[in-house]
Design brief:
By secondary structure, the protein is an alpha/beta fold. The protein folds into two domains: about 260 residues, Rossmann fold, CATH 3.40.50; about 55 residues, no CATH class. The chain is built from eight helices and 15 strands. α3 crosses α5.
Length: about 350
């Protein structure tokens, strides 16, 4: 007689293998973004398995400006971003030993922003919805790009994008160096710029480039991104009439943000998803039709759900109008952002 435990074990092993086989691995595109005289910069791109154009998360790795590369953002990070409808561009910049001392790393990061805009048609990027994101050193680059991409200060002085400016929709900063004068770390990167105001994000809050910011930190991060500097950054952004949130995790030290796995990362994503949906994904639409006021419900992607005061709903995609069962409505048409009644 066959041992029942063996049967059960075999069943669960088979089930695990089946489920694993159904989970498609992330497909990456590794591409050169710029070739300096001695260093070549690359980006790693992942794209959702849906219809674009896609909002973009431009992600910068940390590592104290001394190590790591585009591969530091793991599969689970790409998978989660893709599941929310975002393409991910994990970008490289020159490290200290490669000529990446301030301000060169910022200019490398800015170059990649322009590269994304330039390659929008190739990868089906929605350049009106670019989010810069980073952890630690990468967060410093992400917020510096967001604060200054609309002005000339840190634009690249090399390559094809010199003299250009840009805009980003939002910045996600996890444990950035907001005020170099308030910390002692990072001397190899910041050098003689530590007390130069323009090198610190806290003094660039009124810069041109982005209006929406979310800041994450740890209560016990005392060396690189003390919580007092995160609150100072938040206050500066509010004073500059920009949208800002700050979230500090209790009993948390300096922590990376490269996966969707550990407690800190999942804690961040709980607030980040709400922020992205509110500031990046959802496109607010209000229309008036048939004496009824329609308001868009918050959903992901490019699908609009309009619900009138009587409770009747309409799904709108590609200019076509459907009822909530998926049946095409003959009495309505959606044109130029307005829901119209057919004659």
């Amino acid at each position: 007689m066959i041992n029942q435990n063996i049967l059960r074990s075999s069943f669960f092993i088979s089930l695990f293998l089946f489920v694993s086989s159904m989970q498609a691995a992330v497909s990456y595109i590794d591409v050169e973004t710029y070739k300096h005289s001695t260093e070549t910069l690359y980006a790693r791109i992942s794209i959702p398995d849906t219809t674009g154009p896609f909002p973009v998360i431009l992600a910068f790795h940390g590592g104290g400006f001394t190590g790591a590369d585009r591969k530091r953002f793991k599969d689970s990070f790409h998978e989660h971003c893709n599941s929310l409808g975002f393409a991910v561009v994990s970008a490289e910049y020159r490290l200290i030993t490669e000529g990446g001392k301030h301000p060169n790393a910022v200019k490398d990061a800015m170059h990649t922003l322009h590269w994304i805009i330039d390659k929008a048609d190739v990868y089906n990027f929605d350049t009106s919805r670019i989010v810069t994101l980073g952890s630690s050193a990468g967060a410093y680059l992400a917020i510096m790009i967001g604060l200054t991409c609309g002005q000339e200060d840190f634009q690249p002085d090399f390559g094809p994008y010199q003299g250009k400016t840009a805009q980003v929709k939002a910045v996600v900063s996890s444990m950035a160096m907001y005020d170099w004068s308030a910390i002692s770390e990072g001397s190899g990167y910041i050098g003689n710029y530590r007390n130069v105001p323009s090198a610190s994000p806290v003094h660039n809050a009124r810069g041109i480039g982005c209006e929406n910011f979310i800041l994450f930190g740890g209560e016990n991060d005392l060396d690189w991104s003390p919580q007092a500097t995160a609150y100072a950054m938040h206050d500066s952004l509010i004073a500059a009439e920009k949208y800002s949130e700050v979230h500090i995790m209790e009993n948390q030290g300096h922590q990376g943000f490269y996966e969707y796995s550990n407690e800190f990362e999942i804690w961040c994503w709980d607030s980040l998803e709400v922020f992205l949906d509110k500031k990046v994904i959802t496109k607010p639409v209000s229309v008036f039709a048939n004496n009824l006021f329609y308001k868009q419900q918050p959903v992901q992607g490019r699908l609009l759900f309009l619900k009138d005061l009587s409770g009747t709903g309409s799904l709108i995609t590609g200019g076509q109008v459907y009822d909530i069962t998926g049946k095409k409505r003959r009495d309505q048409v959606f044109q130029n952002g307005v829901l119209l009644l057919r004659p």
